[in-house]
Amino acid sequence: MKLTNKQKGELGEILVSMELMNMGLDVVNINTVYRNYKNADLICMNANNGKSVMIQVKSGTTHNILTGYISEVDGTIPNLETSVIGPWVFVYMPDDKMSNMEFYILTREEVIELISSSNKWYATGYNRKLKKKYPVGIELEWLKGKSSKATKLHPEYKSTLHQPSKDNWYKITELLD
Q: Which pTM was predicted?
């Protein structure tokens, strides 16, 4: 059975919840109470000390995972710093098999820097003039800490992540200690 994009998003949220619960944390999916809450999908809690954190989950099946943001033609993203309220988990689903999924975890600060700098590069570093707003995506290679290769059309984008973010669950658990 081929999954729809909505189903893949929901599956990503479930899998992230399961990973966090396996670490002994409590997780509530906000979307079960409030349909498509804008700034987070999950609330993760440490029942031992009462600390909690809100987490955004973004799932994708291609090398470019959409962030849900729309960029202005000059590469700016309105309200980026105020709308990113916690860590993000990018779930890469290359196919419909759950065994092939990969999790990339970024802190709030890493998310803001990566989205802001890569989008500015996309809008201005391609030697072109954009004419309309466009959806903002994050390349899988950037989440792996790699840079985009330069071509005749544009210089390389140097990822702001200097190391891979795959399975770095500590970026969430440290917030709950």
A: 0.93
